[in-house]
């Protein structure tokens, strides 16, 4: 009994960087007409139910445009000084997870205020555009997975993450899979290549990306498969 309480408590406190890939939504069911977009302000409609720092507002809204099914989902994008070995993390808000139903649940995406290089701190808004899009898109892939899951299911995910690094890999593949299905494959590749080829990013971080995440080549293979399925 004490062990079960500990696992649940840990899961709630850790919440939730990862999830798995057994739900795959179809982006076409939520297509938005070009007539709904205001000229000169093409992505502003995706700001509904979102809190976004001004510095990354434009890139975030563009990333959200690939996920129109999240239009009604409440997501807070928050700058943080430090995120324990990560650049971004997607999580449900604990209070919302416990008190709200799935439809009214609230989420947050924590974003490091600076990318830490070996000799410099780079503001996130100064990253190459496609690199920032891919990073945000990956986290939105996690959110897309969370929205269809019950609170009990998500608590179980927290326990799995605590117990299994293999689960972490599955979860990251899931997030990339969702993002690719929404048309962000080239953005994800830009982000992965940026990290793996950057000569001033810590090698420890690169090794983490290599061990837990899909490679650029694997993502491109997924993109090709998706494109072939769309033409059938």
How would you summarize this macromolecular structure in one to three sentences?
The protein has 232 residues and is an alpha/beta fold. 49% of the residues lie in helices and 12% in strands.
Report on the structure:
It contains 9 helices and 6 strands. By secondary structure, the protein is α/β, with parallel strands linked by helices. The chain has one domain. Helix 4 packs across helix 6 (165-181), helix 4 (129-146) packs across helix 7 (185-197) and helix 6 (165-181) crosses helix 9. The longest helix has 18 residues, at 129-146. It is globular, with a radius of gyration of 17 Å.
**Shape, please?**
globular
List the helices and strands in order. Answer: HEHEEHEEEHHHHHH
Domain count: 1
Give start-end ranges of low-pLDDT stretches.
1-10, 16-40
Please list the strands of the largest sheet in the order they lie side by side: 1-2-4-3
Strand content: 5-15%
* Fraction of residues in H or I helices: 40-55%
Oligomer: single chain
Give average pLDDT, whole number.
84
State the total count of DSSP E strands.
Answer: 6
* Total DSSP helices: 9
Cα end-to-end separation = 52 Å
Structural class: alpha/beta
Computed over alpha carbons, the radius of gyration is 17 Å
Taking the sheet with the most strands, its summary is: 4 strands, mixed
Features:
two-stranded antiparallel ribbon, 4-stranded mixed beta sheet, globular, 9 helices, 232 residues, alpha/beta, single chain
Chain-wise SSE layout:
Blueprint lengths: L1 H13 L35 E2 L5 H8 L9 E7 L7 E5 L1 H6 L6 E7 L1 E3 L4 E3 L5 H18 L4 H13 L1 H17 L3 H13 L5 H10 L3 H16 L1
Parallel strand pairs: 1-2, 2-4
Antiparallel strand pairs: 3-4, 5-6
Helix pairs in contact: 1-5, 2-4, 4-6, 4-7, 6-9, 7-9
């Amino acid at each position: 009994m004490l062990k079960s309480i500990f696992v649940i408590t840990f899961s709630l406190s850790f919440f939730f960087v990862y999830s798995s890939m057994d739900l795959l939504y179809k982006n076409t069911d939520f297509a938005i007409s070009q007539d709904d977009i205001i000229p000169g302000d093409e992505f502003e409609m995706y700001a509904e139910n979102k809190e976004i720092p001004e510095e990354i507002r434009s890139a975030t809204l563009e990333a959200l445009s690939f996920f129109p099914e999240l239009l009604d989902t409440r997501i807070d994008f928050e700058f943080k000084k430090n995120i324990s070995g990560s650049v971004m993390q997607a999580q449900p808000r604990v209070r919302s997870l416990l008190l709200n139903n799935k439809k009214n649940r609230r989420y947050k995406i924590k974003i490091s205020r600076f990318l830490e290089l070996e000799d410099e701190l780079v503001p996130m808004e100064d990253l190459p555009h496609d690199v920032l899009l891919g990073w945000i898109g990956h986290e939105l892939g996690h959110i897309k997975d969370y929205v269809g899951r019950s609170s009990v299911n998500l608590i179980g995910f927290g326990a799995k993450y605590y117990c299994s690094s293999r689960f972490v890999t599955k979860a990251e593949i899931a997030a990339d899979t969702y993002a690719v299905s929404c048309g962000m494959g080239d953005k994800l590749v830009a982000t992965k290549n940026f990290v793996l080829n950057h000569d001033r990013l810590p090698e420890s971080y690169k090794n983490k990306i290599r061990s837990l995440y899909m490679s650029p080549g694997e993502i491109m293979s997924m993109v090709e498969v998706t494109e072939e399925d769309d033409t059938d």
